[in-house]
């Protein structure tokens, strides 16, 4: 399974960027993105930023990753997926 991390751009030269997620820094390619700047939130797969994220998307992805971690530890994870309880999950607009 491949997971994307929501990372924040710390510095960039327009081709590569130093990104951070929970005190981990990683140098990633930003060549797939048209316009990136310091402070932008990006979704990173295999050391490439694949798209920009808004604050809401970043929060949902971070909470989902927290939920997966809790589940792997055998802890209750329902609170991390509260937006899914009682409704059918919907595909994000970009996947429809």
From TrEMBL:
Molecular-function annotations in GO: carbon dioxide binding; iron ion binding
InterPro entries in the cross-refs: Hydrogenase_HupF/HypC (IPR001109)
Family matches, as Pfam families: HupF_HypC
Coiled coil: none
Example GO biological process: protein maturation
SUPFAM superfamilies on file: HupF/HypC-like
Family statement: Belongs to the HupF/HypC family.
Protein's name according to its UniProt entry: Hydrogenase
């Amino acid at each position: 399974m491949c997971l994307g991390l929501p990372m924040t751009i710390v510095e960039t030269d327009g081709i590569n960027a130093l990104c951070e997620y929970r005190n981990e820094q990683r140098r990633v390619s930003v060549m797939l993105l048209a316009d990136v700047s310091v402070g932008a939130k990006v979704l990173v797969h295999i050391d490439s930023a694949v798209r920009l994220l808004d604050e809401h998307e970043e929060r949902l992805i971070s909470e989902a990753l927290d939920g997966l971690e809790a589940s792997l530890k055998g802890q209750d994870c329902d609170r991390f997926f509260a937006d899914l309880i009682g409704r059918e999950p919907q595909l994000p607009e970009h996947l429809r």
